[in-house]
C-alpha cells in the first residue's frame, strides 16, 4: 500500500507526495503555505479519489506524465514515465490504494540521531 508523505520545500512551503508500495514517488502536490492546508487536501483526495480525473500528457522529450484533478482543481503532477503503460500503472495504484493509504509527516526536519 502507498503512503502520503508531507515534507517542506526549500522555500519553507509544504508539499506532499504519494509513494507506491515500493517507495517510488508517483506524484507531487502543489505548494502550501500552511501544513493544515496540506493535510486537508490529502483528506479531500482520499475521500474523492474515485471521482478524480487524470489528464495525461506527453512531454517534448517523449516522457509521459499526468495531472491529478479533483473537482476541477489541479492537485498534483506525476513523475515522468517512459511508457504509457507505466503511466497507467501509476494511476491504477493511486485509485486502488489512495483512499486507504497512511499519511506520514516529515515536515519537522527533526533529526532522530543527535550529533
Key structural traits:
7-stranded mixed beta sheet; 115 residues; DUF1508 domain-containing protein; PH-domain like; YegP-like_sf; alpha+beta; globular
Task: Describe this protein's structure.
It is a single chain. A hairpin with a 5-residue loop joins β1 and β2. Helices cover 24% and strands 35% of the residues. It has a seven-stranded mixed β-sheet. It has helices at 35-48, 84-97, and strands spanning 3-8, 14-19, 25-29, 53-58, 64-70, 73-78, 102-105. It has a single domain, classed as PH-domain like (Roll), CATH 2.30.29. The chain contains two helices and seven strands; from the N terminus they run βββαβββαβ. The model has no long low-confidence stretch (mean pLDDT 89). With 115 residues, the protein is an alpha+beta fold. The protein is globular, with a radius of gyration of 14 Å.
Please, what is the oligomeric state?
A: single chain
What topology, given as strand order, has the largest sheet? 4-5-6-3-2-1-7
Overall geometry comes to globular
Fraction of residues in helix: 10-25%
CATH architectural type: Roll
The CA-CA distance between the termini, in Å, is 34 Å
pLDDT average, as an integer? 89
CATH class identity? Mainly Beta
CATH topology: PH-domain like
Task: Please indicate the percent range of residues in DSSP E strands (runs of 2 or more).
Answer: 25-35%
Structural class: alpha+beta
Question: Low-confidence spans: pLDDT under 50, at least 5 residues?
Answer: none
Write down the domain tally. 1
For the sheet with most strands, the description reads: 7 strands, mixed
Query: Radius of gyration over alpha carbons?
Result: 14 Å
Number of strands: 7
Protein name: DUF1508 domain-containing protein
InterPro entries: YegP-like_sf
Amino acid at each position: 500500500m502507498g503512503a502520503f508523505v508531507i515534507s517542506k520545500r526549500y522555500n519553507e512551503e509544504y508539499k506532499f507526495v504519494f509513494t507506491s508500495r515500493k517507495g517510488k514517488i508517483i506524484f507531487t502536490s502543489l505548494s502550501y503555505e500552511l501544513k493544515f492546508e496540506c493535510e486537508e487536501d490529502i483528506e479531500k483526495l482520499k475521500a474523492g479519489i474515485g471521482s478524480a480525473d487524470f489528464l495525461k500528457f506527453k512531454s517534448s522529450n517523449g516522457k509521459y506524465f499526468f495531472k491529478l484533478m479533483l473537482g476541477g482543481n489541479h492537485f498534483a503532477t506525476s513523475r515522468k514515465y517512459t511508457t504509457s503503460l507505466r503511466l497507467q500503472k501509476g494511476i491504477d495504484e493511486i485509485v486502488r490504494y489512495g483512499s486507504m493509504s497512511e499519511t506520514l509527516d516529515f515536515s519537522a526536519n527533526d533529526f532522530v540521531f543527535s550529533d
